[in-house]
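Retro notes (design track)

What went well: tokenization of the new backbones is finally stable.
What didn't: we kept losing track of which sequence belonged to which structure.
Fix going forward: every design gets posted as structure first, then sequence, in one message. First example under the new rule, 276 residues:
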């Protein structure tokens, strides 16, 4: 599996004309863990959703190349995109409260995803759902399969979301702030789970996050986005030595327990960072 993105641009209509939210983003992705970091509104989620063509109807999408394993995403018909969405690429949202169906049990939602891409009987789908819940390390998966989303904790809800995305056995997993609604202990458990699944299944991963220390330890490569464009790309292990002033500013804004600071640094922006 290879994802190729070249000169990706996403614009939205406004009273003063098209407003570009993503400008000239380019990268390739294989079986690796790629992080996309930056402030809210920098274009991280739009960039990832463009790969699955899951953008608002008003969005104007263009690119020199946008391919998923050789498939031209820009020109693919809806049937081809349905085979990619869920089937070959899964999307994990940041808060299961807003992503899970409140009137369906966890097991029914996973089974529905399994049958949509694999077929089979209801019984087979139910067994697969329980097995997937076990794979995401939920205790007593049979009982959890019969619970509704409001009966699940945040961590369990996120595991159900991951199980649902894994049902079709995808080649790419896009995790959009998958731990932002969880406490620190559960965050670590979910990230270890994702890492284990990615390695065991040989998937590619796009992790969207605001947490720079997290991605520096968890991912292989990092794209830093500002005002809709990539301002820096580096190996995750070298993030602490990043050169761009914006990346340096983000790093210096972080509290460090081993150092005594009277006041955290404030990010000072330069208009040239947003220049296309």
């Amino acid at each position: 599996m290879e994802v190729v993105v070249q000169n990706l641009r996403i614009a939205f209509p406004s009273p003063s004309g098209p407003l570009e939210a993503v400008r000239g983003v380019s990268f390739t992705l294989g079986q690796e863990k790629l992080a996309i970091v930056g402030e809210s509104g920098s274009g991280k989620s739009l960039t990832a959703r463009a790969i699955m063509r899951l953008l608002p109807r008003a969005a104007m999408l263009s690119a020199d190349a946008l391919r998923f394993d050789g498939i031209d995403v820009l020109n693919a018909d809806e049937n081809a995109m349905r085979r990619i969405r869920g089937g070959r690429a899964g999307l994990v949202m940041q808060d299961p409260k807003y992503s899970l169906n409140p009137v369906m049990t966890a097991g029914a939602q996973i089974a529905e995803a399994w049958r949509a891409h694999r077929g089979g009987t209801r019984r087979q789908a139910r067994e697969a759902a329980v097995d997937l819940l076990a794979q995401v390390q939920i205790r007593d998966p049979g009982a959890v399969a019969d619970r509704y989303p409001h009966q699940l904790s945040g961590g369990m809800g996120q595991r159900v979301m991951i199980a649902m995305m894994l049902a079709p056995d995808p080649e790419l997993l896009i995790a959009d702030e998958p731990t932002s609604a969880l406490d620190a202990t559960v965050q670590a458990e979910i990230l270890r789970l994702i890492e284990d699944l990615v390695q065991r299944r040989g998937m590619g991963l796009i992790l969207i996050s605001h947490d720079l220390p997290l991605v520096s330890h968890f991912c292989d490569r990092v794209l830093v986005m500002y005002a809709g464009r990539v301002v820096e790309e580096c190996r995750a292990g070298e993030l602490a030595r990043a050169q761009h002033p914006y990346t340096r500013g983000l790093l210096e804004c972080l509290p460090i327990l081993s150092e005594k600071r009277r006041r955290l640094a404030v990010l000072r922006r330069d208009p040239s960072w947003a220049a296309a």
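Added context from the reviewer: The mean pLDDT is 90.
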